[in-house]
Specification:
Radius of gyration: 32 Å
Shape: globular
Helix content: 25-40%
Amino acid sequence: MRSQCKKKPLIQIILGSFLGTITLIPYIIDRVKNSVGHVDQLESNIVFSFEKVGDLFKMFGRFLTFPTAEITRFMGRGRGFQQALETVGNHLWLTPVFIISMTVSVLIVVMTLLRFYFKKPQSRLDLWVVLLPLATGFMFLFSIKGPSAHTFWALFPISIYPIIMRWNRFPQFMKSSRFMSIYFASSILLMLGGVLPNVGRPYIGGFSLGVNSAQAAFREKALRVFLPQDVVTLDWNQTASAADFPVILNLQEGLIEIDELGKVHPLIAQSWRVSKDGRKFNFTLNKNILWSDDKPLSADDFVSSWKRVMNPANGFSTSYMMADIEEVTALSTSELEVKLKTQNFNWYLRTASPNFFPIRQSLVTKSPNLWTKPGAMITLGPFTLAEHNENQSFTLKRNPSYFSARPQFDRLEFVIGALEEGLILLKNDKVDMVFHAPVESLTKLPKNALLSYHAPQLTKRLEFNFVKYPTGLQKFRKAIAQAIPRDALAKEMGKRFVPAGSYVPSGFMSYDAKGGVAYDPVIAKKAIREMFSLNTVTLDVLVPCFDAAREDNIRLAQFLKKELKKSIGIDLRLKLEPDQKRYALMRDTKDWHILIRDFSGSFFDPAYYYEPYGTGARYGKKWQSTSYDDALMFAKSSQSEKERESWFKKCDEELTRNEIVLVPLVYQKAISILGPRISKIRKKYYDPYILKSVELK
């Protein structure tokens, strides 16, 4: 008898610790993976409203499946019961954890309610163990404290006790006050282990004390981004402005995504096939993708979108982007077929452009002028449009129906204003990043802020007039190219610029850092003297000065004027044109020798850069080359990626090294400033950042 009495405390401690720990499995997984954050799947900021009774029932269902949802969150899924089953099927070791956590979750609620209604509490302690799980549940349902994963799992072991307290089949000693004390002690220790390490830190679990403004922003689960200008339009079929991209690309998704290095990642498209002749593409869409109003996506939504752009009656300036399409058809709800007019094995890359995103035609037809407004816009992306104050701000809220990995934060807020205002907001922890900052105008960065450089997308170049003398001479054009020090030019232009090699910037398959004509002013000067002896040559240079690139173009033109005069004795007469219409007229009338131009591809397809210089193209400049036309044709029609790359490089050599149709000068990079709260961020090619993947400290 005595030996049994001595063993009982040890057994009680072991059992108490086991029961207090088994419910913390997701909490432990979270700690091991060092993944901090909120329980995003539960949308726990729902405020009680009798008008949202359906939402409360949905929340209650999520509460019951919370352990499974929490486990699947760490598997990169986190979409509730359905995907929990899929995850368990793919990871059999999760099966017992799944069964235990589901059983415990259901029993907590059921047994607590039964205990409360059918057995009156017989003591204060008895009353507390009945009310604790109910309080925990209501805390989630009505967001009394806005709990995080850590907080909930710290309270969970205390909440489980009513199950074992009055269940007759449990051993009597487990219902004793001694056992209950040990159980509560172990549970409280586990709870403190989750709470105390986070005191004074941003709201990542437990109660946060003494937070500053940046930590308060984290508690509100909002990422704040500063933009230098408002959007032109949120209609992704019509957008032709890079200013629209940061907002649109967080509202909507396309078939594929291209990262900063040029790698292709599937999004809505699960896979795609290209026909042997390179003229037909079949895209298989991921199933069960929902719009933000929970209606399923269909291949017809892509057909409606693209035909809307192609329709001449709409008069969209982006219609040229669909010019290669002969026919687009929905073979089924998840199968999209595209037929092209000509061969182009790289054509699928163009679908990463926002103009190719799907659209709900019924919404556009019903409200053609209102469907892009807050409350009316339906999207597929990680966020939905909640609010827009013109020239002031945007507010995007997380889309609960989003098909991919969900953001760490509930809201994405864009603040619009002058750069100086953005820097002040960043310094005071009011915003977390400033997009497209002209760093040349910065005198001092805010403390702990970092400059982040994006992949270069824009090429500044010279074009020659083939119908004028002497720029119609290949020898003269080559001398001009040899006399321009691109390294020195990039340094003169500022931190946003890097020396250009090939016509296309980095990331494209035909990119060559050593492309173009090598800098050699000695040979260039010798060639000029052979052609013109000691006579002075004056060239007219047309400089566009009507947009945001005005100052950059003027600085570039002045550098060329000084350098060419010094190196080869060529005088440049700069024609600075501030009016866009007059500039277009002068450009078309060929009243110039050299033209300064920018080119930023709307597509990640190299063919889009080289097509304008083919014979008969609108940018032909009276220049014709059979070898160039053949190289471009083979590049678009080859089934081998290596062969396509080789042919595109031949196109680049013909333009920049042999015939010298153009001279690539510098690539322009966008630069943003990141605040101290951002710990990890991914970039992509068409947009500075993939904001849905931002991780905060």
